[in-house]
Amino acid sequence: MKLKNNFSALEKINHPLFTQHKVQVEIKRDDLLHPIISGNKWRKLKYNLEHLKKQGYSGALTFGGSYSNHIHAFAFACYQLGLPCLGIIRGEAQYENNYTLSWAKHWGMQCHFVDRKTYRRRFDDDFLLELSQQYPNFFIIPEGGSNKLAVEGVSEIIAELAQQTQFDTLLTPVGSGGTLAGLIDGDSQLFETKSQHKLLGIAVLKQAEYLSNEIKALLSEQGKTHQNWQLMTQFHRGGYGKFSPEDLTRIIRFNEQSQLTFEPVYSGKMLLALLDLLEQGYFKANERIVLLHTGGLQGLGGMIEQQRLRANDWPKLPLP
Ligand SMILES: *Cc1c(COP(=O)(O)O)cnc(C)c1O
User: Where is the signal peptide, in residue numbers (predicted)?
Assistant: First the structure.
């Protein structure tokens, strides 16, 4: 399948708070890169799919939760490639008909459910060896798609931005850290010795401090020398997928005002962090901020099914 080198748009966002705090905010619309392979998953899969095609694998397998954006994107990508595809899913088979996995199965993904204890082995060499014996000649992509090929794909965002605008600070939500690693790498490639940019990752899970080491492990040699990034771990709002009614109200109100869609698991947490940081006076006057919209709207499907969100507050999602 072809993932073209098309630029995602950069748009200005106007908001009374931005005016009040004298900052300029733009948004990199990676959510518009592809109708199904959303946002950063498109960037992360780009070179992985190229590799898959070139090497003549018999199939591909990956890991994820039952509402995972990565599982959803990966299933579609394999479907387009005509490649057998397996998802090792954390949780019980009771989830197999939820929004995300219904689509994944629709695209031919075989879902293999494992308990939490087994799922925890997803990075262990012995587990990966077992899987490679069970599924010979399958390409194995880690959870969230975060590997070196993903970092390379994400790094292209910085090259695009360099042609689109000048900015001081870039914000991204952080799950596994692959996206932030890609941005750090891109910035270090383009601005070798002295980067002008501050790269802020907003961790969406609790106790995310360990991710700093994961991020460093994903960086190329060049990226390792750069210190212009920071993982902010205080904006998780209770943990992965958690948010208060007030958080939700703020996101929905911002969506109405901006005509954009931020969802509460990733992009919405980045947005709330931005608003909190503004109120705390974190940014200097005239600071030029770019938000990376990493997409992930399919994740709303599961939350609407579980009645954690009201369908009317969100764009309509396609049904499998
Ligand atoms: C997967 C995902 C992230 C997290 O990206 P990482 O590279 O895992 O840090 C952020 N936003 C959205 C919408 C995602 O689907």
Answer: none
Grouping H, G, I as helix, E, B as strand and the rest as coil, residue 65 is: strand
Tell me the longest C-alpha to C-alpha distance in the chain.
Answer: 59
Residue range(s) in the chain whose domain bears CATH number 3.40.50.1100? 10-38+152-313, 40-145
Ligand 1 centroid, distance to 135 Cα (angstroms): 27
Nearest Cα residue to 183 out of 164, 205, 200, 203: 200
Q: Which fold has domain 10-38+152-313?
A: Rossmann fold (3.40.50)
Angle between helices 39-55 and 178-190 (to 10 degrees): 80
- Residues lining ligand 1, CB < 6 A? 39-41, 69-70, 144, 146, 173-179, 266-267, 294-296
Question: pLDDT digit string (tens) for 230-275?
Answer: 999 999 999 999 999 999 999 999 999 999 999 999 999 999 999 9
- Please, what's the b/e burial string for 52-80 (b: 16 or more CB within 10 A of its CB; e: otherwise)? beeeebebbbbbbbbbbbbbbbbbbbbbe
The model's pLDDT over 23-72, given as tens digits with 9 standing for 90+, comes to: 999 999 999 999 999 899 999 999 999 999 999 999 999 999 999 999 99
Query: What CATH number should be reported for the domain whose range is 40-145?
Result: 3.40.50.1100
